[in-house]
Amino acid sequence: QMTFPLVLSILLVTTTVRAFQYTDLAQYIDSHEEEYVEALRDWVAIESDSANVLKRPDLHRMMEATAQKLRQMGGAVELVDIGEQELPDGQTLALPKVVSAQFGNDTRKHTVCVYGHVDVQPAKKEDGWATDPYNLTDINGNLYGRGASDNKAPVLAWIHAVEAYQALNMELPVNVKFVIEGMEETGSNGLDVMIVAQRDTFFSDVDYIIISDCGWLSRRPALTYGTRGNCYFTAEVQGPKQDLHSGVYGGVVIEPMTDLIGILDSLISPSGTILVPGIREAVAPLSDEEWKMYQDIQFDVDSYKNKIGVDQLMYNNKVDVLAHLWRYPTVSIHGIEGVTAKFSIRQVPNMDPQVVKNQVTDYLHSVFAKRKSPNKLKVTMVIGAKPWLADTEHPLYEAGKAAVKRVFDTDPDLIREGGTIPIAKTFQDVTGKDIIMMPIGGFDDGLHSQNEKMSRYNYIEGTKLFVTFLDEVSKIKKTSV
Amino acid sequence: QMTFPLVLSILLVTTTVRAFQYTDLAQYIDSHEEEYVEALRDWVAIESDSANVLKRPDLHRMMEATAQKLRQMGGAVELVDIGEQELPDGQTLALPKVVSAQFGNDTRKHTVCVYGHVDVQPAKKEDGWATDPYNLTDINGNLYGRGASDNKAPVLAWIHAVEAYQALNMELPVNVKFVIEGMEETGSNGLDVMIVAQRDTFFSDVDYIIISDCGWLSRRPALTYGTRGNCYFTAEVQGPKQDLHSGVYGGVVIEPMTDLIGILDSLISPSGTILVPGIREAVAPLSDEEWKMYQDIQFDVDSYKNKIGVDQLMYNNKVDVLAHLWRYPTVSIHGIEGVTAKFSIRQVPNMDPQVVKNQVTDYLHSVFAKRKSPNKLKVTMVIGAKPWLADTEHPLYEAGKAAVKRVFDTDPDLIREGGTIPIAKTFQDVTGKDIIMMPIGGFDDGLHSQNEKMSRYNYIEGTKLFVTFLDEVSKIKKTSV
Fold first, then answer.
1. Of B49, B184, B207, B417, which residue is the catalytic one?
2. Same domain flag for B67 and B167
3. Which residues form the Peptidase M20 dimerisation domain (chains A, B) (predicted)?
4. Of B351, B385, B419, which marks where a domain is finished?
5. Does residue A309 fall inside a structural domain?
6. Which of A379, A423, B246, B313 could cross-link A332 (Cys pair, CB 3.0–4.6 Å)?
7. DSSP strand pairing (A376-385 vs A229-238)
């Protein structure tokens, strides 16, 4: 039953090739909603949890299923071996292969590369799921299941977008490549190396990279143009040579844990102000244009508080909340193991990770020195990931805005992500290509938590957005790249 | 070869019974040094690690070996079933039985009960041991092995003390009972219930309880007359209903971890002052007599710093160091799991755990309130163990001093323990008996750390101390009890 439309489309290709027709594509997509839901059901049923080594066979099966789907559509598909990962116990485990695929290689056209992932966060019914997380369940038009929104439905929506062109015998307006990985949820292990290795081959003719691994901010569609960077630190206070029993020595020994708590408490004020000198000064000032842009974004502070379950935020008005989520830095203390603490500073333009490293290290050492402790402090920056920021006036974003306008009859909110999507920065740095983040997930999809869902509306309209965006990208002048 | 001296002593008992003769006992003990070392070697070879459930068969074997030894000496021995322990995974595991034994039941004599334990802390060669921790190794008169000092040699020394009387056909000056457990290192699970259950039977005729589960402070012998109590707290900061991703929400949400660090940092100043109001005021003032007593104790601050591997203590003079180790309270922060911190206040007279609980809870809530955080703080006192303090002028301590004087030709240091020995307080509260702590371990035995050892000197002279102490106890007037 799968081969019939394929054979049909191939037959049609040999006769007439049609140009982009939005109405036909939208109608085709609407009429295939149930098939799309079934495809998502099949994918969600595969427990492709990349954090659980026992699920690695399922993850391999997920990559195979993805490759198989793209092969059936006639793509030039490869399963790229990216090696092994080392487990904490020293054993090694094969990484899931990365699926790369290509549809079309007309050098007169632009080439886009869609990045996505088909691994998921862990999920167990007993964690508080209302439904079986691996059995896609439709409740009032919401499709509940682990990985539904992050990132299986968006990947499928891109596949359906290409399929729709094929089925209607419409010419793909641009060449479309795919890079689908299976380790995103645990840090995209191995992907960097693959991107570097294929920079001058697979990625050489790519013009634009599209990432749909995020969500809207509200019910209004959005384009994402920035993410915060991440300077991740460890701070260790080294004390006496022996592991001293607190009862036996407590009272005369200056305990490393007390020192550690003291320096951590110097990082941030109760109201959330970063106390490390120089950090706030480095932040690019909020311009009037930006202020106005934030003011126009559809975002309700009360709904947001309600959604995340807090009574009070650090700020009460929309602009402040959005600015502090996206374009101001923040310090988070993640935890303490032994006498080593982990904390991170989410970073924004114009901060420089190397400068942040020095600012934090110098400051903590000065705070520590004032304690006059005989212990030793060691501060290490483990990760120094830069923020990513795109130009929202770039033709790629203009194409995105036009696509949103056409499908949703509204302008998109231009938003950022408070988190870090390191792969965006890697793509940018290694390939030098322009990147757009085009989310189709809902603001309340519950990524990484219980009861993750994707709505039928976002899934289907998102597929329409993708077919349209391909057409809009094709209109970008080659010279403007 | 074990039965020969036993049979011999039984034969002698039927002929003549001699009175206490220190010289003969000391000579006998000296001439049996190698046998005592071999006995310790056999016990150390049993990996009676009570923390490791996989070693539980070894622990059972250790309790059997202890019982068997006491049976061979003609004691009335019982292996008391104290039930099961529940493991974190919900499974249950049989606790090691408690060995009780009795030698003599002459109602005209005092009855002492020796408490000890034969379980040990975990030890692995690769933790940094210079020798195999379970193969007793003699280096320059020091016997290295896990449990050598804590607490196998002291328990054996008590056994050898009774044996020496028997072998020399000397009448035991007092009735001697033993209570030897196998769960001390993990919290004496089940022992409380056994003490309560046997209060009116096994413990009813006991006059004095002797604990030799501690060490000297220096090369000078010591009697221990106090331990600090322990108020153990958890503090949890409850935040948003969801587990929020720090990148996505950081900057607008007041993070529970930041609040938790802030309140922990309010407990103690960098120089070690407890900041909880009322705590310092409750501490019994240091009297001139106490100051003088501390001044006379043999204790070198520099050696102490060297031993524990710190360059600087909170105090530089002996009296301050000892006072802050033993008779002033201290706050230790043990760690943070999730957003729950664990900390404890070592407690001293005249602090009251219930008052400490209120002081700490009120203070932390007031500190937390000043933060104006929307999160919730929950403070719980998990343990409220009182300090233990004995009267050093009590006839039992006078007997101890006399015994030390006789064996070592010096007065003992009268010392305290900075830690908590909850079983001392349990014995005191449940049985109402007087307790003496009579250590024979060296100050540098390395309890709980790598390269634990017991010196031949302390082991042998300690056995002499025990035979002598029994004689001294017999001189206490029955009425003075």
1. B184
2. yes
3. 225-368
4. B385
5. no
6. B246
7. antiparallel
Task: Give CA–CA dist B234/B351, Å, rounded.
Answer: 19
Q: Do B332 and A242 touch (CB under 8 A)?
A: no
Give CA–CA dist A94/A57, Å, rounded: 10
Asked about A119 being catalytic, the answer comes back as yes
Which tens digit of pLDDT belongs to each residue from A367-388? 999 999 999 999 999 888 889 9
- For residue A344, the enclosing domain spans 229-284+327-385
DSSP state of A385: E
* ipTM reported for the complex surpasses 0.90: no
What CATH number does the domain containing B163 carry? 3.40.630.10
Residues B201 and B100 in one domain: yes
**Chain A closest CA to B68's CA: distance in Å?**
34
B16 domain-assigned: yes
* Contacts with A345 (C-beta within 8 Å, 6 or more apart), sequence order: A230, A231, A233, A274, A276, A279, A329, A330, A331, A356, A360
Q: Which residues contact A165 (CB under 8 A, 6 or more apart)?
A: A25, A171, A172, A467, A470
Residue A245 with chain B: CB contacts under 8 Å? 419, 448
The CATH number for B363's domain is 3.30.70.360
Query: Best residue in B253, B327, B423 to probe A by mutation, most A CBs within 10 Å?
Result: B253
Interchain CB distance below 8 Å, B247 and A346: yes
Distances (CA, A) of B428 to B192, B242, B382, B387, B388: 12, 48, 21, 11, 9
- For the question of residue A181 being annotated catalytic, the response is no
In a domain, A300, yes or no: no
| B29 shares a domain with B100 | yes
Q: How many A/B residue pairs have CB atoms within 8 Å?
A: 189
Q: Are residues B347 and B217 in the same domain?
A: no
- In chain A, how many domains are there? 2
